[in-house]
Amino acid sequence: MSVTENTEQATVGVGLDPPEIDHEAIAAKLARPGFFKRNVWSFVFVVELIAIFAVWQFIAGTLEWFNPKFVPPPSDVFTELWNMLPLVGDDPITEHIVFSVRNFIVGYIIAAVVGISIGLLIGATKVGELLLSPLVWTAYAVPRSALAPVIVLVWGLGMSSKVVIIFLLAVFPVIVNTMEGARHVETSLLNAGKVFGASRTQQMRKVFLPAVLPFMLIGLRIAVVRGYIGVLIGELVGSFKGLGTILRTSAFNFETSVSLAVVIILVVFANITMLGVSFAKKKLAPWHSEEDVLKSR
Amino acid sequence: MSDTTETRSVTLASSDEAARPGGRLSDQPRLEQPPRGEWWERITVWQRALLVLLEFLGIFVIWQVAIGTFELVNPIFMPTPTDVIEGFGQLFGSGDKSVISATDQDIWVHIKRSAYSYTVGYSIGVMIGIPFGLLIGTSRVAYKLTGPLVWSLYAVPWVALRPMATVWFGFEAAPVIFIVSFASLFPILLNTAAGPQTVDKSLLRSAEVFGASKLDRFRKIILPSSLPFILIGLRQAIIIAMISLLVAEIVGSSKGLGALIVLMTSNFRSGAAFAVIVMAVTVTIILGQGARYAAEKLAPWHFGHKGR
Predict the structure, then answer these.
(1) Is there a domain that residue A213 lies in?
(2) Cα→Cα distances B95→A189, B89, B104, B274, B286, Å
């Protein structure tokens, strides 16, 4: 805009006047973009999400293109979700949620402790690497979830078989990440510690462990997803209780809205746990940044 | 690991010599260092391989003796290596030996069904994943519009969809194919999308300067530099597709390798169930090695032996 004004002036006037500088326009250009402009894509996403739900509601609920038993409208799903919630719903599934989440927590903690110990043993000692790492890689290649029927046969339909499955699925990301992290600790750091007279325990505690910590936490974060998949596999193969059981019975009763509500509950739980681990990583290892090409855009 | 660092330091030293003929580095006579450290730091690759082999043999022997001979654990729960070999006989044997023939099927029915579901499911994942990944990798608007949706779908554990897949797609191969393609889609999609992000911007600019059209730039720069990422995604998807295939067949399917595992387990023939798993592992390893070989051929600058 200002450019055209200036040229106009130049042709009209004698041509000696210095062009007027539009300070306000420049300041406006340099200023931090406004709240709306900064978050424009978030708004677009919210609008998009609302639009998707509206179209889905319209097609499935109003027009009934599909049998609502197969493709329920979102309103049904959210009503079911509300009904299922503990404390507020009419038909709370507290018992099942507690069963699943408790299994997850027990299996995950065992996996974390065992995984970190084995990972450190392999990563920190040459003998461990020599003898244990081929075993770990072999076991890693086996689809452990395929063992679920055998595990249910051995440990029964109760809690223990679920914990074993969750443990087996969650332990390997922890082991592999810890051991790879430990293997790639910079030797210059360890040497520097040695030069400054750190004892063996001090080297371990102050140099080695902090260097491995971020990788442990990455492994623990991957293990969250694996753990929840383990919860589901265990309960789908054979169980009396738990979210997976509800998922199975509701799908077989053609109550797809209930199934979708359970899926939403699961996604929420898995994401809360993941966020917790990510938060722990940010607090415990703030120096370590992951390059995530896609999310940084 | 130590091998690569050694070669790197050697090449560095030699390039230094080339840069400064008669320089200080080459004047110093290099002392051949005697091997130091404990025995496990001195052994060669072959000795190490032998050690691992012996270790595995030892484990198998202990396993066989502990469970087969002394029955510390009921062999039904934890079959011995010989049980697993017998399991193969039970699976592939005909007549009385076969355990599947009672159901009027033979093992090839299951193998064919699994191969079909695996191939179709994986191909659907590839056919959606690569084009869509390239789209959201190259176009910022497309990424901003669909990215959050993709990430939230990625958060859905694929097993959770298995019961509903039965409702939507029936009891034949279709629900299994759905689960396999859903599970293999995301590694392919997300890795492919990361590819165009890492393209060297100066390459794109120089191509623009030399008058390459948008299509040319995509075809000759973006696509080749994304190729390694696509291949990594394809390789990851091979493994996850196999896992999802087995799980999807275990949970509510009457044919396929996963269903066979359930059938054998419920007949208390865990040796045969383990044999099925051994088969699946073998196939996965073969496919994975094939993919690795293909990657080295297709993108030697990224996967070649000299590179990473």
Answers:
(1) yes
(2) 66, 11, 11, 21, 30
Same domain flag for B207 and B299 = yes
B261–A146 C-beta distance less than 8 A: yes
If one counts the domains in chain A, the total is 1
- CATH code of residue B203: 1.10.3720.10
Choosing among A232, A258, A263, A278, which should be mutated to test the B contact, i.e. which has the most B CBs within 10 A?
A232
pLDDT digits (tens, 9 = 90+) for B209-233: 988 888 888 888 888 888 989 998 9
Q: What tens digit of pLDDT does each residue of A137-164 get?
A: 888 878 888 888 888 888 888 888 999 9
CB contacts < 8 A (A, B): 141
Residues of chain A with confidence (pLDDT) below 70: 1-16, 291-297
Rama region for B268: left / alpha / beta (φ>0; ψ in -120 to 50; rest): left
Residue B89 lies in a domain: no
B154, B275: one domain: yes
Which residues touch B183 (CB under 8 Å, ≥6 apart)?
B125, B158, B240, B241, B243, B244
CB atoms A149 and B273 under 8 Å: yes
From residue A55, give the alpha-carbon distance in Å to each of A86, A259, B286.
30, 21, 45
Q: How many domains does chain B have?
A: 2
Q: In this structure, is residue A50 part of a structural domain?
A: no
Same domain, residue pair B49 and B179: no
pLDDT in tens, A39-96: 788 888 888 889 988 998 888 888 778 777 788 888 888 888 888 887 777 778 888 8
B251 touches chain A (CB under 8 A): yes
Q: Does B16 map to a domain?
A: no
**Per-residue pLDDT, B96:** 53
For residue A168, give the nearest of A240, A212, A123, A103 by alpha carbon: A103
Chain A contact for B51 (CB, 8 A cutoff): yes
Q: Which of B158, B163, B261 is closest, CB to CB, to A247?
A: B163
The CATH number of whichever domain residue A192 belongs to comes to 1.10.3720.10
What mean pLDDT is predicted for residues B8-32?
Answer: 47
Q: What is the ipTM of this complex?
A: 0.78
The parent domain of residue A106 ranges over: 94-284
